[in-house]
C-alpha cells in the first residue's frame, strides 16, 4: 500500500497531515494527523487510525461511535510529507454527525453518482413489493435496458422541445435507470469513466513525425 520509510515525519515534528477522502464520491471527509505508529496500525488493520493532538495519543476513527473508515488506498504527496487516505466510511465522518467535516452537503457534484450507486446497491436487497429498484433488479438486465431506452427517448423529446426543468428531470430518470442497468450487469459507473479516460488520451501520430493526424 505504502512504505512508511519513504515519508518525512520529521518535517512535522513526528506528524504527517492526512486528508481523508471518500473513495467513491471523492468528497473530502476530514483532515487528521498520523504519526508512524498510527500509520503502521492503519496499514495492519485496514482501518484509519490517527494521532489525536488534543488527546495526545493514538485514535482509531469510530472506536466509540462505530463510524469507522475502511482504507482503500494511501497516497503520499510529491514531498512525502502529506497523505491522502481514500476510504469507505461506515457512517458520518464528522463528530457533529455530518458526512464531512467541511460543510453539511453530502456527496456534492458528480459525487452524487457514486452515492446513488450505493443507494441502488442497498435497495437491490430490499423487498420487490416495496422497492421499485429491487423489483427492477429482480427482472434482470433486459428489463433495465428497456427502461433506459424509454427514458432515453423521453429525455431526447424533452431536450428537443421541453423546458429546462423537464430536461433535467428526464435526464435524472435516465441516469438512475442507467445505473440500475450497470448494477444488474455487475458493473459500476467507473467502468464508463474508464472508457472516457482512455478516449481522452491524445491520439498517436501514424507517420512517426510527431504531428497529430488531421
TrEMBL record:
InterPro entries documented for this protein: His_synth_HisIE, HisE, PRib-ATP_PPHydrolase-like, PRib_AMP_CycHydrolase_dom, PRib_AMP_CycHydrolase_sf
BP-aspect Gene Ontology terms: L-histidine biosynthetic process
Amino-acid biosynthesis is among the record's keywords: yes
Keywords for this protein: Amino-acid biosynthesis, ATP-binding, Cytoplasm, Histidine biosynthesis, Hydrolase, Multifunctional enzyme, Nucleotide-binding
UniProt-annotated stretches for the region Phosphoribosyl-AMP cyclohydrolase: 1-112
Region (Phosphoribosyl-ATP pyrophosphohydrolase): 113-214
Protein name as it appears in the record: Histidine biosynthesis bifunctional protein HisIE
E.C. numbers: 3.5.4.19, 3.6.1.31
Subcellular localization, as worded in the UniProt entry: Cytoplasm
Similarity section: Belongs to the PRA-PH family.
Domain Phosphoribosyl-AMP cyclohydrolase: 31-102
UniProt keyword Cytoplasm present: yes
Subcellular location, principal: cytoplasm
GO cellular component, one term: cytoplasm
Catalytic activity as recorded in UniProt: 1-(5-phospho-beta-D-ribosyl)-ATP + H2O = 1-(5-phospho-beta-D-ribosyl)-5'-AMP + diphosphate + H(+); 1-(5-phospho-beta-D-ribosyl)-5'-AMP + H2O = 1-(5-phospho-beta-D-ribosyl)-5-[(5-phospho-beta-D-ribosylamino)methylideneamino]imidazole-4-carboxamide
Pathway: Amino-acid biosynthesis; L-histidine biosynthesis; L-histidine from 5-phospho-alpha-D-ribose 1-diphosphate: step 3/9; Amino-acid biosynthesis; L-histidine biosynthesis; L-histidine from 5-phospho-alpha-D-ribose 1-diphosphate: step 2/9
Amino acid at each position: 500500500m505504502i512504505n512508511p520509510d519513504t515519508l518525512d515525519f520529521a518535517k512535522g515534528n513526528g506528524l504527517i497531515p492526512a486528508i481523508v477522502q471518500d473513495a467513491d464520491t471523492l468528497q473530502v471527509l476530514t483532515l487528521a494527523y498520523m504519526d508512524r505508529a498510527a500509520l503502521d496500525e492503519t496499514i495492519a488493520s485496514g482501518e484509519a487510525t490517527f494521532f489525536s493532538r488534543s488527546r495526545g495519543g493514538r485514535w482509531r476513527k469510530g472506536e466509540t461511535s462505530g463510524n469507522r473508515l475502511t482504507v482503500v488506498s494511501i497516497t503520499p504527496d510529491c514531498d512525502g510529507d502529506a497523505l491522502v487516505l481514500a476510504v469507505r466510511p461506515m457512517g458520518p465522518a464528522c463528530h457533529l454527525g455530518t458526512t464531512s467535516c467541511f460543510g453539511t452537503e453530502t456527496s456534492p457534484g458528480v459525487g452524487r453518482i457514486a452515492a446513488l450507486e450505493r443507494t441502488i446497491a442497498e435497495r437491490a436487497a430490499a423487498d420487490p413489493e416495496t422497492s421499485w429498484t429491487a423489483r427492477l433488479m429482480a427482472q434482470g438486465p433486459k428489463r433495465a435496458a428497456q427502461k433506459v431506452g424509454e427514458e432515453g427517448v423521453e429525455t431526447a423529446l424533452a431536450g428537443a422541445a421541453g423546458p429546462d426543468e423537464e430536461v433535467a428531470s428526464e435526464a435524472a430518470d435516465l441516469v438512475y435507470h442507467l445505473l440500475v442497468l450497470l448494477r444488474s450487469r455487475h458493473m459500476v459507473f467507473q467502468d464508463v469513466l474508464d472508457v472516457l479516460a482512455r478516449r481522452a488520451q491524445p491520439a498517436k501520430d501514424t507517420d512517426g513525425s510527431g504531428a497529430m493526424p488531421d
